Amino acid sequence: MTGSSEPTSRQAAQQDITAAETAQQGTAAGQVTQQGAAAGRAAGRAYRIVAMETHDVRFPTSRELDGSDAMNPDPDYSAAYVVLKTDDGHEGHGFAFTIGRGNDVQTAAIATLEPYVLGKDVEDLGALYKEMVGDSQLRWLGPEKGVMHMAISAVVNALWDLKAKRAGKPVWRLLSEMSPEEIVALVDFRYLSDALTPDEALQILRKAEGGKQERMAEIARTGYPAYTTSPGWLGYGDEKLRRLCKEAIEQGFGQIKLKVGADLEDDRRRFRIAREVCGPDFPIAIDANQRWDVGSGIEWINALREFGPHWVEEPTSPDDVLGHAAIARGIAPIPVATGEHVQNRIVFKQLLQAGAISYLQIDAARVGGVNENVAILLLAAKFGVPVCPHAGGVGLCELVQHLSMFDYVAVSGTMDGRVIEYVDHLHEHFVDPVVIRDGRYLAPSAPGFSAQMHAESIAAHLFPNGSVWRDA
Ligand SMILES: [Mg+2]
Question: How far is the CA of 170 from the centre of ligand 1 (A)?
């Protein structure tokens, strides 16, 4: 590969940031001040993003085995966290979710994207997203997968948080109120056209225009159904499992999920306990977190068939499209679900084309943020597969609720067979935490993407020198 010259967009960004600094008349670069805002207005230009901060934030969840599963026995839920600041005093917050070690790598990857946002606004997030994904040098680290793509997700989502705050609306409503043409312009259709063209996407969105206002009002009134994974972490003992299953039902959840895949006899015992508590018809999904090969997965799942799994999640490698299809055939009619580690829209396309999944599980912070998730929601609608988002992590519930609500209002137009995962961890660290009532996510009403953590939470959990880590 050749080429050491800066992309044009970077040069433009640097020029803009220089102008912004000049406009701030002597204040430090990135410091958001009233004078800066006034200077910006006096110069007759729109606001600009003038600073990007990153933070390595980690929560010591492994101490209680919260979040433990067959492949991830000791996660420390973490956020590679980014804050964008504008010269008129607004902030956009976003993050990539990791489970501890490597969160510093993830944070460093986010920092490489700074030239793409400095000096920019949020008027055309379709173009800005495509610019970042298309960086000819950073793209070598993917393309469109792994640490770099998750970094793009964090920044794209922070831009959406900023856009929604400026608009005075929650992201789900901001997206829902866009026209079909505006929504299609958010999507990168490259590599999708054999499964979904821009025209087909427009048709899906135009069809959903009917009844959109009523659905928006309904979401605001009654929210969106949730299921809970909290009873099912693999590290929890039988009595804790029994108690949490009972509590899930009392709290109004219509579905739970159990982690499986470490030991078959343990899985049978735990599934039996959950069935005893929840009853014969209650939906209980199971999640193997990529534990099995294709053949052993089929055997293991069939050994749990008598307990009636509602779905089997991540039976094998998230990259193994044909393996998922083989498992789906081998365990039919038990449905297969996956998505939380699916790296981009192209793999989702293939999973759908291969008939490999019955439930599609988007993750708000793994693929390229809101924009790529809009593409995936459109793909799912085209193939008629329900979207049941992944949300086990820190802040993922906060983000992904917006996407499901948008899906209901403006894309699929239905909640049939759809539930958003809910885990009861770490919400207290967020300024606008999710609200669950009677087993449903209540619609966020505060402007933004519900992504912002309290400043004190960020400070206390900075790794390795925040008080939570330093004093451990
Ligand atoms: Mg899972």
Answer: 26
